[in-house]
Amino acid sequence: MHEASVMADIVDAVLNELEKYKVTKVNEVTIVIGDLTQLGEEQLQFAWEVLTDSNIMKGSKLTIKHEPVELRCHACGFEGPAKSVDFGDELSHAIPLLSCPECGGKVEVTGGSSCRIESFDIEEE
Questions:
Q1: Fewer beta carbons within 10 angstroms: which end of the chain, N or C?
Q2: What DSSP character marks residue 74?
Q3: Three-state DSSP state, 111
């Protein structure tokens, strides 16, 4: 479960940033997770609850925004979302196709691989 180690890094990064302020409470932290990361939202939420239980972020809300896979084709000029193959299983696995949806050519991935903190909502002294 690599979600736990990813979330540990996120929690550490937020805690390090919070040291710059006189924080009394953390209400919410918003992160952006690209669809190419294949990180599970439920696992991230669970790891958040466990890793924030004994620090100033206890009881805070974790908001996860998803970043879709975006492509750019240098052959035909296409820029936009990747098509995907949906396996239709109970886990809703969809695998993005990393080829141009228009011409089938090679593409540059321009979105969907992020794993970053977007913002946090805090209360200060």
A1: C
A2: T
A3: strand
